[in-house]
Amino acid sequence: MLDWSRIDTVLLDMDGTLLDLHYDNHFWMEHLPLRYAEANDISVPEARELVIRMTDALRGTLDWYCLRYWSDALKMDIAAMYREIEDRIALRPHTDNFLRSLRQMNKRALLVTNAHPDGLSHKLEVTGIDQWLDEIISSHDLGHAKESVLFWHSLQERQPFDPERTLFVDDNLHVLGAARDYGIAHLLCIRQPDSKHPAREISEFPAIHDFDEILGVL
């Protein structure tokens, strides 16, 4: 699937790519509505509907990913609540082997994520994946979400890379579209970012279920 001789830099998303998206989906759809309902004396379905309505209005923007924004908007300590279910944080299958293989092949591996720094540091603390990464970049540090082509221009200024010799792996089709528009030559989408949800049919980009599908050619 990949000609690794043509790839120098590997850009990797975190949630839904390296880590199981179940943790985040469970937090926003189950845990947060439950805690919000308890704090505001409303039903869990009412709380869930409120959270969905508020998040849908900002989907794809930097605020959508900002834990501090949601702490202010919902009057709750979102970062602290994240830790209440940290036992659900998990690597996706074969992630550790894949990251080790990139290091052995002398590929430059960068984490590029929309995760807010507060949540990002927590997940790195739990998983330890930062030991295999050459650099970690949050969109909050660059001022633009990955859905915007401006993110990719800012990333190029911060961590120069050759788009023609770069592989980018993500589970978000809108993000992959922005990377394609910027000119990144090698793109891969994750079919099943959440282990508790069915795999998706992906036609817009080359797609894999797990990293073992490309480990064999490393």
TrEMBL record:
Organism this protein belongs to: Microbulbifer harenosus
Protein name (record): GMP/IMP nucleotidase
InterPro entries given in the database record: HAD-like_hydrolase_sf (IPR050155), HAD-like_sf (IPR036412), HAD-SF_hydro_IA (IPR006439), HAD_sf (IPR023214)
Highest taxon, organism lineage: Bacteria
PANTHER family, per the entry: GMP_IMP NUCLEOTIDASE YRFG, PHOSPHOGLYCOLATE PHOSPHATASE
EC number from the UniProt entry: 3.1.3.5
MF terms in GO: 5'-nucleotidase activity
Pfam families linked: Hydrolase
Keywords attached to this entry: Hydrolase
